[in-house]
Description:
Number of strands of chain A: 0
Order of helices and strands of chain A: HHHHHHHHH
CATH architecture of the largest domain in chain A: Orthogonal Bundle
Oligomer: homotetramer
CATH class of the largest domain in chain A: Mainly Alpha
Amino acid sequence: xxxxxxxxxxxxxxxxxxxxxxxxxxxxxxxxxxxxxxxxxxxxxxxxxxxxxxxxxxxxxxxxxxxxxxxxxxxxxxxxxxxxxxxxxxxxxxxxxxxxxxxxxxxxxxxxxxxxxxxxxxxxxxxxxxxxxxxxxxxxxxxxxxxxxxxxxxxxxxxxxxxxxxxxxxxxxxxxxxxxxxxxxxxxxxxxxxxxxxxxxx
Amino acid sequence: xxxxxxxxxxxxxxxxxxxxxxxxxxxxxxxxxxxxxxxxxxxxxxxxxxxxxxxxxxxxxxxxxxxxxxxxxxxxxxxxxxxxxxxxxxxxxxxxxxxxxxxxxxxxxxxxxxxxxxxxxxxxxxxxxxxxxxxxxxxxxxxxxxxxxxxxxxxxxxxxxxxxxxxxxxxxxxxxxxxxxxxxxxxxxxxxxxxxxxxxxx
Amino acid sequence: xxxxxxxxxxxxxxxxxxxxxxxxxxxxxxxxxxxxxxxxxxxxxxxxxxxxxxxxxxxxxxxxxxxxxxxxxxxxxxxxxxxxxxxxxxxxxxxxxxxxxxxxxxxxxxxxxxxxxxxxxxxxxxxxxxxxxxxxxxxxxxxxxxxxxxxxxxxxxxxxxxxxxxxxxxxxxxxxxxxxxxxxxxxxxxxxxxxxxxxxxx
Amino acid sequence: xxxxxxxxxxxxxxxxxxxxxxxxxxxxxxxxxxxxxxxxxxxxxxxxxxxxxxxxxxxxxxxxxxxxxxxxxxxxxxxxxxxxxxxxxxxxxxxxxxxxxxxxxxxxxxxxxxxxxxxxxxxxxxxxxxxxxxxxxxxxxxxxxxxxxxxxxxxxxxxxxxxxxxxxxxxxxxxxxxxxxxxxxxxxxxxxxxxxxxxxxx
DNA sequence: CATGAATGAGTTTTCATTCAT
DNA sequence: AATGAATGAAAACTCATTCAT
Lengths: 202, 202, 202, 202
């Protein structure tokens, strides 16, 4: 308590409740209660519930991006960098479970239009850039980098979700490894000479 | 009156609105209005909004599973069968866009607990079974079939989402092909000989 | 079923529900359901819920009066007659529990104004007349007959209520006797000279 | 605002309306209106209409008991004490007419189960205790004290009711006296020798 | 800053009654 | 007669937001 200001307490409470039951289902009263303050005070710090949600979306997405960026900072090789980014998703999900749920669970209609990519542009962008570079360098096979990013991020998110639901036998580290490995296979440049595996429309 | 009973009209209206704005944000009044009936009548047919959501989740998930099952009925080879299932996701998304959105967008807390897999057990199960068989036959590399199903379904869903948002340059057929191809790579059995990719080299 | 017409079934169902939860809380739907018919049909036989309640109040009050009248028909002596009337209340309460509850539980504001006496004028009148006669003959001490009727009827009703609630140790017959005895004491003419009315001369 | 808080205003308005038309027939809107506040505010202070009714039942029953207790505090002799308690019923009915009506009119199904005695255990208990003591001391004839309490309380209530309806010629004081006198006769120990009055089991 | 009572515009829900069949 | 879908009006209840203190 000592350190955390009321404003932070409100943000924290709101994030937890938004993650748990969705923005619509969470009431300002609950939020205030959980934050140990009054409803009125919530309005001193924020413009309202929507503002709270928007603020949280922004800061959460940015924090997510920061985690990824920090972890991947040193990696230069696209393959290694991508691995790290994926691991970052799992790390973030573990370290900030409410934030992770909130980002995932927000109904599309709640998400600000210009950062539509479900996870916000910030985190996505790092993936996209890495893949673009990897393709250019021949480290990855040629694919639409946005599509590939979508695949990989979705895979990681779903893996977290399934793990949380207790539907996976393996432990988190193993699941992370598997998912990293899977993404490698997804993007691996085809071996041998030219004429490799076109997506070969069957 | 005509052919479609009011009950069906209500279901249809609710599905559209739930998909568009989420269960919480859709009001019973809107639903009734859109269904061309009275709010009271809605309560004659359903126990309330939650019941409506539950019913829709169930029937929609089942319809999804039926589409997949029908399309994959003739395929026996796990690889071909998996391809078909993935294509089925895209087909369903195109043919029943509201149902698809609704299944995706439902907040986890709205989803009946025992069919938690986001898409309900019905559709998921078909994937899991196919992968289990494929692994047994050596057609796929050994992976946790639930995890692999999660990956693949999530990839397909995200691809649909990105396409809907207009973030992908390719047309739908091409995106479908790409996603099918990606899943093949994900599960491809390793080339017998030594030097195979262990998932955990790192 | 065979014999009882739907109309009777409706009356019976309504009486039971009115007694159980009150007129307001009972819904026409419940009534129809319990009567094994449809809501619409209820409106063929009655003008609505209020009409049903009014009809039931009337017939039930009359039936009550009939029971009392029948039992007391042969008694001519005011004392004996009053005893019999009181016993009649207990008899009616036992034979027609729903009717009895309904008559008691109706909120004053539901009771037709001109038969205000809680049990309707019919049953009350028999008591009043008997007491008037008893007073005139010197069998009872001089009291306001309406007030005395109120006392006695209220006593009997309360006794039934307490018995139903299981708050009384004695059996029904004993409670009846006690209440009859109590009413005798209430009205016993004072012993004037010697040889006066012991409360229990009978 | 003034002195009386809104919460009290709500309780007061609800009590008046509940007494007048019954709990079911009174609407939250009316209550709020009459209390000079908004419906929403009613729900800030109470969980709903039922909670309001429950609260009122409790506080009203307790206030009733308090009145009785206060008035009877100094009386030690069972007979005098019982007289005072009966007078207390009339006093309470006059001073708190709405509370009195509400206690009487509540449909049994609204009454909390463990204080079923129509007037709540609180007021009843004082009567029961007094009668038990009086019987033990030989001041009253032997009767089931709960039954006797029922009789007497019911008599007093009915007397008030009849008076309110204008069906009694006498004034309130006279009616009170008569009812007190009646209760004395009800419980008077039989004179003379042993082998006193059995209720003459016929 | 902070509180929590108060508001009002909504929402969900109920139900007596009507109506097409 | 009978059904049960449909209605509309009103009920209970919710909740983001404001306001006096």
